[in-house]
Amino acid sequence: MLKDIPCGEVTEDHVGSSITLAGWVHRRRLHGGVVFIDLRDRSGLVQLVFNPDTPNAYQVAEQVRTEWVVQVKGLVRRRPEGSENPALSTGAVEVAVDEAVVLNQSLTPPFYINEESDVDESLRLKYRYLDLRRPTMQANIQLRHKVVKYIRDFLDTKGFLEIETPILIKSTPEGARDYLVPSRLQAGEFYALPQSPQQLKQLLMVAGMERYFQIARCFRDEDLRADRQPEFTQLDLEMSFVDEEDVLSLTEELYLTMMRTLVPGRNVPGPMPRITYDEAMARYASDKPDLRFGLEMSDVSDLAAQTDFNVFRAVLNSGGIVKGFAVPGGGSYSNSALRELEDFVKERGARGLAHVRLGTEHSLDDLTESDVRMASGLNMHPQWAAQLARQMGAEPGDLMLLMAGAPHAIHAALSALREEMGHRLGLADPNTLAFAFVVDFPLFEWDAEEERWNSSHHPFTAPDDDQIHLLDGNDLGSIKSKAYDLVCNGSELASGSIRIHRRELQEKVLRLLGYEDSDIQERFGHLLEAFDYGAPPHGGIAPGIDRLVAILAHAGSIRDVIAFPKTQRGTDLLFGSPSPVSDAQLRELHLRVVE
Length: 595
Ligand code: ASP
Description:
Blueprint lengths: L17 E14 L2 E8 L2 E7 L4 H9 L5 E10 L14 E12 L16 H6 L1 H4 L3 H23 L3 E2 L17 E3 L7 E3 L5 H9 L4 E9 L11 E10 L3 H19 L11 E3 H8 L13 E2 L1 H4 L5 H8 L3 E7 L7 H12 L7 E5 L13 E3 L7 H11 L6 E7 L1 H18 L10 E5 L4 E4 L4 E4 L27 E6 L2 E8 L4 H10 L4 H15 L6 E6 L1 H8 L30 H6 L7
Parallel strand pairs: 3-5, 6-9, 11-17
Antiparallel strand pairs: 1-2, 1-4, 2-3, 4-5, 7-8, 9-10, 10-22, 12-13, 13-16, 14-15, 14-16, 17-20, 18-19, 20-21, 21-22
Bound molecules: aspartic acid.
The site of aspartic acid has 10 residues, from strand 21 and strand 22.
């Protein structure tokens, strides 16, 4: 090795010994004729001191610039009293250098590596190898390693086998578009990159592996919505002979112990609640609620029906609902603050936002006209406001926010508003990780645009045993499934389900999803055939690794915890991909690019 120990590990124990170190020049300063260099490697920083009385080394110190790579040899000594730096692991010591060699020079980097300055992201991505040198990014990538290692060790103790599955495969749908790879040897035919190893892990259960996991790369060609990557990493796992609770409790134990080990300072309430999908939608208007705070929803359609307010009337008459939540202390919000909130929900697809503000003068029992200020047009008696307040859990001094519409039309905006208010009121403690399982998802959801049923999760999810008969009816939307999600602080971290393991049921579900019989055979024949050979009951889950590490690292984006991510437009700015290929390559692949 070109170094004896890592820079960040030089401590008082080394005082008096001569050591060799190597790393990057993090910072250099001249002070009273002496050159100080902070030398950096992955482990951290150590202070080097160069004195003119060791002229060779001193000359090197004068010449080097930030990010040059150097090797030094010197004596470890205690720093002079008063100059210790308690913020550094090496802050009590310094190295008096007597030999120094430049191992490589560096151009001036396009951005500071030794400062947490706000650098344009496209510049960071183009020079990712420099961006990754920055201490926060180093910490993120190290944390990611620890997460993955923890998962591997944990699952090993639980009897799981890590098994690799192919990347060149056939479409295994998760509701996105496939990435296709043309075959050179079989003209006109294509592989698909897996959207997940879903069918492969199910086949491994048929194969008797019983407990499988993989740190799996998944590929989904989606129009990139906020903070998604075309390729991302999941902990993919599958177990045989289990029911839902077996998968949930294993996942819960993994997450709780991992959090306590890797981020012991974070507040992680356990046990993790199990909330049904219906309850989550009713109470939080979201299937991935942020449970760090209340601000729970109330359906106040009954009270709304007592008003002449046009907006409410029209919605209620067409079968919609009026729903909202109380904002503690929001009674003093100004009209312009409320208009701003209305703009916020309109940007998220809502038609409007009604409100009722309560003053603090009187209790709910004796509210007067002057205590209540309502959205214009909502001219109701103070007693109505008091009733509303009781139903919504509001107190004098609070604000009640209401939206009207079909549930699916208002839930997204209501939930975004709830999260926004939670953050504004400082209720979303950044140190808390509020995990929960959302269970009993619907099996299907109606796609109004395409006029067909889609799977809520994926087509391999089993319906509830006592609801299988409903597959023959015409109320498919009411069928509950054995699907579950793990959520945390308003994000979905994992999805999974108990699977269908019988051919007839799988075929029936695929038909209800609109697949023709020939299609079913062509696309899923291999899986259906496998089910004919003693497929065991099985189920699993697939927690996303990127999002988890981002939450643990307090990173603003999953791009900050992926070594080489792509931009929102799916571009790799470092390699410059995607990029054109030569005509010869196209010919070999039997492809022609059409303008
Ligand atoms: N394959 C599913 C997904 O990628 C996860 C699962 O059902 O295990 O979301």
